[in-house]
Task: structure prediction
Amino acid sequence: MIAQFHCLRGCLYGKSLSCNEKSRGNSYRAVNNYDLDRQILGCGDGPASFNAEMSQRGGHIISIDPIYVFNVPQIKSRIAETYEEVMAQTRKNQNEFIWETITSVEELGRIRMLAMDTFLNDFYVGKQQGRYIAGALPSLPFNNGRFDLALSSHFLFLYSAHFSAEFHLQALQEMLRVAHEVRVFPLLMLGGAPSPHLDFVIEELTKDAFSIEIKRTHYEFQKGGNEMLVIKSTSSKF
Ligand SMILES: C[S@@+](CC[C@H](N)C(=O)[O-])C[C@H]1O[C@@H](n2cnc3c(N)ncnc32)[C@H](O)[C@@H]1O
Result:
C-alpha cells in the first residue's frame, strides 16, 4: 500500500495541449496510435485516467492495481484525505521537477485531480467490464502471452527504496510472461536518484535472452526522468 494514491507525479504532454490532455499520465505517453490495436496491460495504473481515455479511443486496456479492491467512495475519500499531504510533499520537493509544461504545484494538483475524476467516473463500469482488476505484482492473474504490451508508469524503479531488486526482477519476469513487450518509465527513484536495481535486472534479463533497450523520451518532468526501459521477448511480433 506504500505507493497508493501518491500519484500527483503524473507526467504530461507538451505545452500546446489542453488541461484534459495534460492530465494524461505516463502510461498514456508510453503508447501511440499504433498501440490502439494492441492488447495492453497497465500495472500499477492507480487512480489515473489512462484506462478511461485509451478505452474511449477504442484501445484494449486492462489495468491492475491493489487499490481496485476498493469502491468509488472509498477511493474518493482516500484521495481527499491524502491530497493536502501529497501537495505539501510536492511543494517541499519542487526543485526535483521541471516546471515548464506544468508551471506550478497548484496546476499539477488541478491536473491530477482532473485525471482522478476521469478515472473515478469510469471505474465502476470499467470494473464490471473487467478493465480494472485488483491485484499486485509480482503475480499477475493472466495466461502466458495474453497481452502485446505491459506498462509500468511510476511504480517499478520509482519505489526502489521500498521494493527490493529481487521484487523488481520477479515483477518484470511476470510482466514478460504475460506480454510480448514491457515498457517502464521512469527509471529514477523518488527523490530523483537513478534506481539501484536497474543494472541488476538488466543483467539478469539479458541472461534470459530478452532484448533490452533504454530509450530517451521527449518528456521530462522529474529532473533526469527522460528514459524508458523497453524489454522485448525474442518472439515479439512487433
Ligand atoms: C505513483 S502511482 C502511479 C499511478 C499511475 N501509473 C501514474 O503514472 O500516474 C503507483 C501505483 O502503484 C500501485 N501499486 C503499489 N503496489 C503495487 C504492486 N505490488 N503491484 C502493482 N501496483 C502496485 C499503487 O497502488 C499506485 O496506484
